[in-house]
Design brief:
Length: about 120
């Protein structure tokens, strides 16, 4: 079992409650941590036996492409897309941060994180 982490994916997304956020969008940062069995990839050295980082990036980009109000919604969409695409993932952690959110003071970022685990009883 290994942990694969893809950190700091930056996107422009229309995620937010306020009209200006819906119109102009926000810069967001997404990081994912995947726990996956890598024994086969380790012995074969073949990409198709593990997680394709570019594919994960594309899944995240697709998930945040549509407008939504909440980071909570976005993090769940990302989690569902990645977990659905890769049955080999045992655990998944997704963090989405809105950079420089529109607040009454200066705030670097706000973030929401989701922890997901595949039900191994099946």
């Amino acid at each position: 079992m290994a942990v694969i982490s893809i950190e700091g994916m930056i996107f422009r997304a229309h995620i937010g409650y306020y009209d200006a956020e819906k119109l102009l969008g926000n810069e967001i940062e997404v990081s994912v941590k995947l726990e996956v069995a890598t024994q086969k990839a380790e012995s074969t050295d073949k990409l198709e036996e593990t997680i394709d980082y570019e594919d994960v990036y594309d899944l995240v980009r697709e998930a945040v492409a549509e407008p939504m109000n909440l980071l909570e919604t976005a993090v769940k969409k990302i989690t569902n897309k990645i977990a659905g695409e890769y049955p080999s993932i045992k655990r998944l952690q997704v963090r989405i941060a809105k950079l420089n959110p529109p607040m009454k003071g200066r705030v670097k970022k706000v973030w929401v994180e989701d922890f997901w685990r595949r039900d191994l009883k099946k």
